[in-house]
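Could you join me in thinking about how sequence relates to backbone shape in a protein? Label the sequence line and the structure token line clearly, so we can match residues to local backbone shapes. Once you have written the record down, we can walk along the chain together.
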Amino acid sequence: MALKSLFFYGTLRHVALLETVLDRSRSGLDLVEAVLPDHACYWVKDQVFPLIAQEPGAQAQGLILRNVTDEDTARLDYYEGGFAYDVQQRTAHTSEGEEPVSVYVPQAGRWAKGRPFSLQDWEKDWAALSCLSAREAMDAFGIWSAEDLAGRLPMIRRRNNARKMAGARGPSPDHRAGADRIAVLSRTRVHSHFFALDHLHLTHPRFDGATSEVLSREVFFVGDAVTVLPYDPVRDTVLLTEQFRPNVFANGDPSPWVIEPVSGFVDPGESAEQAAFRESQEEAGVTPDRLELVSASYSSTGSSTEFVSIYIGLADFGTRSGGGGLAGEGEDILIHEMPCAELEEGLRTHRFRDTPLITAALWLMLHRNRLRGTA
């Protein structure tokens, strides 16, 4: 049964996002401004979307969508279910008087309340990313359940944030004109779960000025990532992680537990540096005093969109506390403290199999004396 009227108090007041979710244009939507008495809107703590809470005397500003169709209901249940929101009944006030409405509210105990929500701040900082992510999420409407979407939304946001950040980096020093002549003939999303895979047919300008033949290629979408090699210049030791890697196992490698630096994804709203500090604490139990940038580059331009910022994290290992990763993310991480002499020997003997570790370790060997001198 379709809902008759819906009250939107948060991000769906942004009409472009509402159009994406409903797959309808603004001209076909019956929207009216309203308030919900005795309710207030807050950011969800540590998230980029709001919740509504009962609060005597407060008034939550919003929009009512009238004449909601069965299709609207199904699409909204799917989208809002991805955030663990369910429908409850309330009474809103419009210039025409009271009106019974349905409202999507968070499931009990699911989210913690943060500071008061500002739609203007959300539109400035998050609207573009949210619309991109919603487009990907709604492409799977009718294929995924709301529970499926809930599990996949964090990676959807990370992937789309990476696309946004790639555009913001601007042209490289070796920029070559001609990107406007790249023609995408078709683009199909083949898979979307933790990672995503698109199949493209495209042509591009050749160096001789001609147009290439039609290329059929898969593009593997990951997200921006960071790696950190924690280094204590007083002890002259580094911290290394060891964990099971399904990709290595699936490739037939007999040693799927891999020695690596600290690593993780850049979350929306984070800089690469902020992600590096966070991951260092989560995985290795240290918070670096400072970071030294080793490189920022694509990990494999021929197969993946992953853009990795690699750091050395200067830290006092005597302050270590916690680490080992997050159980909620399925992480099971063993920490090794290794003298730099052993690290250097491992480079000479080709012991290590992780490229970011090798890159960071080689950089550390070049700069080790300088870093020890400033400790």
About this structure: DSSP finds nine helices and 16 strands in the chain.
